Amino acid sequence: MQVTIAGLDGVPLVQPGDDVAGLIIDALERSRLVPQPKDILVVTQKIVSKAEGRYVDLASLDPSKKAVELAGVTRKDPSLVEAVLSQSTEVIRAKPGVLIVETRHGFVMANAGIDQSNLEMRDGSARILLLPEDPDHSARQIKQRIDARFSSDTGVIVSDSVGRAWRLGTVGLALGAAGVPALLDRRGEADLAGRRLEVTEVGFADAVAAAAVLVMGEAAEGRPAALVRGFEWSAPARPAAALLRPKAEDLFR
Amino acid sequence: MQVTIAGLDGVPLVQPGDDVAGLIIDALERSRLVPQPKDILVVTQKIVSKAEGRYVDLASLDPSKKAVELAGVTRKDPSLVEAVLSQSTEVIRAKPGVLIVETRHGFVMANAGIDQSNLEMRDGSARILLLPEDPDHSARQIKQRIDARFSSDTGVIVSDSVGRAWRLGTVGLALGAAGVPALLDRRGEADLAGRRLEVTEVGFADAVAAAAVLVMGEAAEGRPAALVRGFEWSAPARPAAALLRPKAEDLFR
Q1: A51/chain B closest Cα distance in angstroms
Q2: What 3 state SS string does A128-191 have?
Q3: Which fold would CATH assign to domain B4-49+133-248?
Q4: Across the A/B interface, how many CB contacts are shorter than 8 Å?
Q5: CATH of domain B55-129
Q6: Which residues of A touch B163 (CB under 8 A)?
Q7: pLDDT mean values, one per 10 residues, chain B (253 residues)
Q8: CATH dotted code for A4-52+133-246
């Protein structure tokens, strides 16, 4: 079994309202990459969010009392904290330099996944970029366009890079997914000794995203998508929302 | 940029005392896979632990009072809990069905990473398999052998599959690494807008392991290694120990 991950060059800088699927299709065609069934296109959330116009001008926000308090605790900009809170259902941890929340999507992330880097400045104003409103939906929309253009059944993952509780360094994961079993359930299968496997739910889309994000590189390199080829599966597609651990099972909040 | 991940077939079941590097070299040669500089060989901890004889017969253990108490809380076998405690420096969470510890290596993991599946049974006795004593050292040893045989400078990662606090499904990560920048530091570089990147420590070895573990598949398929080709880096090699978040920065214990 061999898997290839090809970084997709030639996607231009994305602006609000851009047709991100169309830009990716153009780049695929220019790169002579033709998606096949069971290929997986990984797209960074950054260009999805940009196309969806998820910018916020920090100056436009009026920080609440709670945001000002948390800004004191975390030593962050009160307007940024206001933006984080607007995207969150719960503050998980707050201390100097750190604000970890559960986002409205259910992701436990620093700063609600808000991106403060790589944003083209207009007249010095500070814009931030929120996560896509519904990354699984974004993935489905891109998948429909890819499949229509290439007559394929191509998986799509919307990726992000996140920190971890007990490990240094960011790794990619799947915020959204379509056409892939984001969570792959292998419970009940037997191992080599005929014993039933106990823990075999596999974070498939997260692991695919982790590798693809490495190939895409940091955004500085301007390669916001990658095509992954060679994985096989028979399990039904499940969205990235299936990867969220239910709150009742969460031991760390 | 294109990365390929080739699963390595033909590695036999490993027994204590086996020369795991030699078995991998044989399998690489039979597969006509010749490691090149900057290739990364990912090897599952399971065969490394087996070769290192990290088996424990549960019946040989005499559970301490603390182990018996924790077995009550977690509803686990007191002997298994004894084994977990023997490999741990701290119990992080214990509740029915769950025992999360910090291992002597510094990994925060369920059951100290002890493997209860895929262990060939002898006369019905229950054996478990501990993690390698020093996975970075194991990786270095394998690297030396691979490099000597193929005149290469090949990275080696010793991988495992672990659960996550807020996500369902296991993903691969790097327990040990040699010849790769396990943690890749890109702080200080500029983004497209000329802004300094704030968070750019990348969990390189973890992300490589995540994808390789998918290609290796579950152990049931008997493919315990994969060769990853196509990544470029100029950063110095760092062991997987560099990926451990210092306890003082840990917000979740």
Answers
A1: 17
A2: EECCCCCHHHHHHHHHHHHHHHHCCCCEEEEEEEECCCCECCEEEEEEEEECCECCEECCCCEC
A3: 60s Ribosomal Protein L30; Chain: A; (3.30.1330)
A4: 230
A5: 3.90.1660.10
A6: 199
A7: 92 92 96 95 96 93 97 95 97 95 97 79 76 98 97 96 95 98 79 58 97 79 88 94 93 87
A8: 3.30.1330.100
